[in-house]
Amino acid sequence: MSLLIDPEIAARVDRLEIPFNRYGVDPYGASKEHLARLFTAFRFFYRHYFTVGVEGMQHVPARGRAMLVGNHSGGIALDGAMVITSCFFELEPPRLAQGMAEKFMAKTPFMGLFATRSGQLTGLVETAEHLLHDERLLMIFPEGARGTAKLYPERNTLVHFGSGFMRLAMKTRTPIVPFGFVGGGEAIPTIANSYALGKLLGAPYVPITPWGVALPAPVRLELTYSEPMRFEGTGTEEDEVIEANVERVKQRIAGLIEHGRERRRKALAWSRGAEDEALREGEDVGTKKEEQR
Amino acid sequence: MRVLIPGIGGVLGQRVARRLLEQGHEVIGIDRRPWLDAPPGIELYNVDIRKRAAEDVFRKRRPQAVIHMATVTHLVEKTAERYRINLGGTRAVFEHCRDWGVEHAIFVGRHTYYGAAADSPLYHKEEDPPMAVTTFPELADLVAADLYACTALWRVPNLVTTVLRMVYTLGPTGHGTLATFLRGRHVPMVLGFDPLFHFMHEDDVTTAICLALEKRVQGVYNVAGPQPVPLSVVVRGTARSPIPLPEIAFRAALGRFGLPRLPPGALAHIKYPVVVDSEAFRAATGFVHQVDEVRAMEEYRNAFPVRG
Fold this sequence. Notes:
Chain A: Keywords: Acyltransferase, Transferase. The structure holds two protein chains of two kinds. Chain A contains eleven helices and nine strands. By secondary structure, chain A is an alpha/beta fold. Chain A has a seven-stranded mixed β-sheet, sandwiched between helices. In chain A, strands 7-8 form a two-stranded antiparallel ribbon. The longest helix of chain A is centred in the C-terminal third of the chain and has 54 residues, at about 240-290. Chain A is globular, with a radius of gyration of 21 Å. Chain B has a single domain (about 1-305), classed as Rossmann fold. Chain B has helices at about 10-20, 50-60, 80-100, 130-135, 140-155, 175-180, 200-215, 230-235, 245-255, 265-270, 280-285, 295-305, and strands spanning about 1-5, 25-30, 40-45, 65-70, 105-110, 125, 160-165, 170, 185-190, 195, 200, 220-225, 230, 240-245, 275. A seven-stranded parallel β-sheet of chain B has the order 3-2-1-4-5-7-12, with helices on both faces. Chain B has a two-stranded parallel ribbon with strand order 6-15. In chain B, helix 3 links the parallel strand 4 and strand 5. Classes of the chains: A alpha/beta, B alpha/beta.
């Protein structure tokens, strides 16, 4: 086994209820070895670097088709990575959340391969439907690339939601589990997006941070899941009907973002309070020591 | 049942013919190529499917079913001649079926007609348009032949028409596009890409065609066996060595240094997957593959060991 793979995580990958073949590859190209390596790395970021606070994990179904639908937060797919990690580490048995990646990724050498081996596929409605038919857990960001392009001041806002996910959920009778993600905007505070550089690299744009590249800072992230939403229909309804349903999901996510922000404020206040207290204790000890002298 | 197989001289044609003979069918074959060790009991006509003599076979022998495999799929044939065989031949087969009272016609096509591209769905369903004409222009005649066969579904309502889109074949005969690509000691890959490849053992391919005949299914069906595996797994599973080359070097190296010759359009198939959803065929015929991907690779490896 590779040095980059924690045996405990490899054992957890074995517990994923996915039909891996004898080569450890599933019918969509996800690889057990790659997943074990990926989650070994992601665990550090999830537990220690970002200290992700998760609430409402019980709302993610243990089995069967479901759509995790949430907001983009941050200039790169930090949110997606942490959602996938939460489903892997917090659920029993673990589940693989599968995202619908931007199309440019499949064209880019190594990037498309990396995504496929991690179970992340090109965002096409046909592929999404096939995954749901196979009772998989789908992760969808209806804001698309517009969402990751949010600048720092817009970090906790929601931009336009596409409606394809809603039509698909109704057609396939899939429950939607909304989630709100907070903190990505602070981790990668985008001050501008370079569309010219993006064109050069074959991506929609490249986010620019105060320190240049989009390397994330170690800040606290909050992820909040809410109870599943079910929508009756066939998915072929008129736009007004679909848009109204999309709006309901959007409102729910907006509420989850607020809830996450509140949690984040409290956590940071507590953390600051604890630091102050520790500092005060330090000062007290110092004063007492001086008095003893 | 009296079954006529245009293209019986090919590896797949011969296998289907033998299987049908074993099952008690009366088998008639048409091919320009000779079949020297054909089992007694198979009636062979050494004629071109596009010529008058082929129609005479339909007229005199009055087959009840036709399995059309007289298409040129290897890409070394000159294009114009290929077009004439693949399109003219397919037209001739369906016209003769209409004129001479054939009850069931099966067109044996390929899954690669869907085309490989970065923005293609991972699992193609039968309703997906065959996009290979844009990504792989060298396949245009085969795509057209497949679509022409599909038109028989409404043009010839009395004829039960089955169009099969079959994944790559892999097995001990070494027949087929994938098997040919894997023949050398080193197999080139495009650096940074490792697409899923969908293949099935030749015994299962034979079974699927015979089942389509037996169940008399009408419509277009994808046919696949085991789940697809990455190209690197196929290469290693057949005891070859993958050589990842940057795309520019890949283009330049093809046909040299012992690497296979490929037309430019084939490059997309080395970068992006073409896999199919075959649920409809399984539901319609009850088809279950018998040979998994591991054994198919093993049998190929044993039949074509790497020397040196």
